[in-house]
Structures are given as structure tokens and as C-alpha cells.
Design a protein that fits this description.
about 375 residues; 5-stranded antiparallel sheet; elongated; binds adenosine-5'-diphosphate; binds magnesium ion
Length: about 375
């Protein structure tokens, strides 16, 4: 096996560069000419619904799939025809893929043994990797004697022990139950920081992507829809698809009038309208979706004449542990969802049937061009 010379890798400003990379399987355009640069030490997540091309992208970085078009660079060097084992990558999959007959120590040591490292170096590196993932106490256990979380830590240690230039993770926590998954997310982030390794994570779990990533790449139907920090993605979603996929959102169809300077009037089909800041990229008049997060909707008792931007009646109250949501029917296609800070036993709590006015700050809303009927991606 070819041995990777890590020191020879140019210490460039870009760890991974994907330039116009596409992949087609019989009839299916799995990935359509995507481009993305990842800087050293960065934690990037590929986020999107099942089938949007995340795994295919990761496998092309790994060298397990050959792109039909475009260029992949790792550490500045084109790797399109470099075999996986010479790319300096570590991989962890959802299925642990540990060797069942080997101990924790032997599983982690495997890659270094294959490289022909001296036994003492292997011992030092494996001990270090076991400490990093908190498995120092269990070197002699077999995979069958470990919990799901522990097995995934062995897989992570095995990927990190070779000191990869890039760590590639495909839904690594997908098989764990929710509580353990959340615990492992925190641990994974700490381990990644400590190791300082450039990491690409594939996940369909938006909370996981928001928790772990420096940047999130949102994908849909083989394309990149948005690249941004977790707060960009959450607060400034590029379109309805991202708004819908990441977090809970209200998208209310409306029509703008011609803009007056940088102000524009927004009219809902129920007859209500308000004036707000015009977005630069919108022509007027036009159909828009008004985007507002539930936590940005401010509710007030409706005393006599309606105030605020909308008004309506509370239809449902949904208790979701830490948050409570009111669904308020306002005479539009869908009720508006607002989060409430109340506890169920509060005496002045909002209740089903209450008449409320709804408002939000201009800076908490976005006007998104309405999608043509049928253009909304459903992948
Ligand atoms: N080996 C393959 N042969 C044929 N089609 C494939 C293959 N791998 C993936 N696909 C198709 O490519 C698309 C993207 O798949 P994938 O990258 O696995 O998506 P994701 O990881 O986002 O769920 C899907 O439509 C999938 O069915
Ligand atoms: Mg996948």
C-alpha cells in the first residue's frame, strides 16, 4: 500500500476544494456540478433530505466514487485519480464497520499496521487516540461487548489515529438513540476541535448540523442551495426550501405593491397589509412569501380594533417540552405558528379561542420571491 507523506502536503489556505463536481448514475443526476471550498480545521456539514446527493459528494471526496465532471483538490493537490488510501482521509459511517473479531485496540491499530508502522509507534498513537475518545479503559473489549456509542467512538478513533488531513463522517450518529446522539454530538465537536482536523459531516438532521458546524452546506436534488454559518442558515435562509427544512418557519403568501424608495407595501389575501423594507432583489409588484420564525411572532390580546400585522384566533396549543407553540388562524392558507414563553399553569396564559394580534419586527422577517406552482422542490 502506498504510504501517505503528510509532511509533504502543502500547508495551503484550502483543505478541500470541490470545483464543478458532478456525478450521474444510470439516469439519476445524483450531484450537479457543485463547488465548495473548505478551510483547514473547519467543520462543514452537508445537510439535506434523503437522496439529495450528500453521500455521493462525500464518497467522491473519499475517492470511493469517481466524478463525471469537475476537480477535487485536497491540500491543494488534484486527487481525482488518487486512490482512497492515498488521499489522507479518515472515514466514519453510520454502520460501525468494526472488525468483530478484533479488540478495541486492534481495531484502532489496523490502519497503522497496514502502513507498516513500528509496534512502539502504533502503541503510542493508539493509546493517544483511545484517550481522545475516552476509551482508555477498554482496550481489550470486542465490539460485541460495547454499546452503540462506544462502538462509534472506536470507529472515530480508528479514523483519527492515522492523522488524516480530512475526516469524513456519513451520518455517524444516525443509529444512536436521541439522548446518546445529543451527548455524542457535543463529544464529537470537542474531539474534532482537539484534533484540529478538517471535517465534513453528512447529515439529514438539521439540529445536528446547527450544533456541530462552522458552516452548513444545504443541498437539494443534487445542488447546493445555500452555504453559510448556522446562524446565516437559520436566520437568513436563501429560499423557502431552506426555511422549511431548517427549523420551524411561517411562510405566508402575499403580494407587494410598487416600492416607494426602499419601502414597500405587503398585502395579504385576507385584506391586511403593512409597509416594510424592500429587499433589493425583488421586483414590484410581485408575489412573495413572508418568512418569520415562530419565536419572532409577538402576540398581544386583541383589544377592540385589530393592531399588529395580522390578527386571529388561537386554534391549537402544542406543548413540545422546552417550547410551547400557538397555532393562530389568521384567515390565510395556514395558521401562523408562534412560540410562547408561558408555562401551562400560568394564569394569564394564552388559551385556545383567544383573539390575538400578531406582529413582528421588520428585521425578523424576509420577503422571498414566490415559487412558481410546481417549482417547489420535493426531493
Ligand atoms: N450506486 C448508485 N447507483 C444508482 N443510484 C445511486 C447510487 N448511489 C446513489 N444513487 C442515487 O443518487 C441520488 C443521491 O444519493 P445519495 O448521495 O446517497 O443521497 P443522500 O446521501 O443525500 O441520501 C439518489 O437518487 C440515489 O438513489
Ligand atoms: Mg446518505
Amino acid at each position: 500500500m502506498q504510504r501517505l507523506n503528510i509532511e509533504a502536503v502543502a500547508a495551503g489556505g484550502v483543505a478541500v476544494e470541490i470545483d464543478g463536481v458532478g456525478k450521474r448514475y444510470q439516469g439519476v443526476e445524483a450531484v450537479r456540478a457543485i463547488s465548495l471550498s473548505i478551510v483547514p480545521g473547519e467543520f462543514v456539514s452537508l445537510l439535506g433530505p434523503s437522496g439529495c446527493g450528500k453521500t455521493t459528494t462525500l464518497r467522491m471526496i473519499a475517492g470511493l466514487e469517481v466524478p463525471d465532471s469537475g476537480t477535487i483538490r485536497i491540500g491543494g493537490a488534484v486527487v481525482n485519480s488518487t486512490p482512497p488510501w492515498s488521499r489522507g482521509i479518515g472515514m466514519v459511517f453510520q454502520s460501525y464497520a468494526l472488525f468483530p473479531h478484533m479488540t478495541v485496540f486492534e481495531n484502532i491499530a489496523f490502519g497503522l499496521k497496514m502502513r507498516g508502522e513500528p509496534a512502539q509507534n502504533i502503541k503510542t498513537a493508539v493509546d493517544e487516540a483511545m484517550a481522545l475518545v475516552h476509551l482508555s479503559e477498554l482496550p481489550d473489549r470486542l465490539p460485541s461487548q460495547l454499546s452503540g456509542g462506544q462502538r462509534q467512538r472506536v470507529a472515530l478513533a480508528r479514523a483519527l489515529v492515522i492523522k488524516p488531513r480530512v475526516l469524513l463522517l456519513d451520518e455517524p450518529l444516525g443509529a444512536l438513540d436521541r439522548k446518546l446522539r445529543e451527548q455524542m454530538q457535543v463529544e464529537l465537536k470537542l474531539i474534532q476541535r482537539q484534533a484540529g482536523v478538517t471535517t465534513v459531516l453528512v447529515t439529514h438532521d438539521q439540529e445536528e448540523a446547527l450544533t456541530l458546524s462552522d458552516r452548513i452546506v444545504v443541498m437539494s436534488s443534487g445542488e447546493i442551495v445555500q452555504i453559510g454559518s448556522p446562524s446565516d442558515i437559520y436566520n437568513r435562509p436563501a429560499n423557502q426550501f431552506v426555511a422549511d427544512f431548517v427549523g420551524m418557519s411561517n411562510l405566508m403568501r402575499a403580494r407587494t405593491s410598487s416600492a416607494d424608495g426602499d419601502r414597500v407595501s405587503v398585502s395579504f389575501p385576507n385584506g391586511r397589509s403593512y409597509v416594510t423594507k424592500a429587499e433589493g432583489n425583488l421586483a414590484h409588484p410581485s408575489d412573495v412569501d413572508v418568512f418569520v420564525r415562530p419565536e419572532s411572532v409577538k402576540l398581544a390580546p386583541n383589544a377592540g380594533s385589530p393592531s399588529g400585522k395580522l390578527s386571529g384566533t388561537v386554534e391549537h396549543i402544542v406543548y413540545a417540552g422546552a417550547s410551547t407553540y400557538a397555532h393562530v388562524s389568521v384567515g390565510l392558507a395556514k395558521p401562523v405558528v408562534a412560540s410562547l414563553s408561558q408555562k401551562p399553569q400560568d394564569s394569564n396564559a394564552i388559551r385556545i379561542g383567544d383573539e390575538l394580534s400578531l406582529d413582528w419586527d421588520e428585521t425578523d422577517a424576509l420577503l422571498m420571491p414566490a415559487l412558481e406552482a410546481g417549482a417547489r422542490r420535493t426531493s
